Structure formats: structure tokens, C-alpha cells
Amino acid sequence: MFVHCSELNELGIGIDFRSLKNALADVIKDLDHSDLNLVFDPIKQNPSSENIARYIFKKISALLNTGKCRVVRVAVSETPGNTAAYFE
Prior knowledge:
Layout: E1 2-5, H1 17-28, H2 36-40, H3 49-64, E2 69-79, E3 82-86
Antiparallel strand pairs: 1-2, 2-3
Helix pairs in contact: 1-3
């Protein structure tokens, strides 16, 4: 996941990695060890890596985007060397 922050706080931090980790854990809890077809069928999408990246991007953006920071890219790896990314 890539996050763009327009400014840093007084400690020189754009966004706390703990916030990123917690938001990502919240988003992927429905995907981890799940039948992805059951997650993606209701939204009429194939659970491809590309669609998974878009799903995570949309969900995590809703949690993290502020006036100062925004998610700009999410990458999902199927295997080492095979990665799909989604960005807007």
C-alpha cells in the first residue's frame, strides 16, 4: 500500500504505520482464510488479484483518507514476482 501525505506532523511523520496496519487488518479480515467467491459474488466481481486490489483500495481509502493523507496505490501479490496493483 502506498500513501501520499501532503505534510508531516511536528515529529516528521506523515501517517503512523500503526494506523496503516490496523486499517489493513480491519479490511482484510473478511478476505483472510475465506472463500473469496462468497465475498465477491454479492458485488458481482471475479475475485481476481486486480479486483482484490481494487476492493482493498476502496475500503482502506474510506478508512484512511483525510485532507492531509490519501491512499494512492494498493498492490496484491499472488506469488513472488506476480503482483497486481490498483490506483486511481
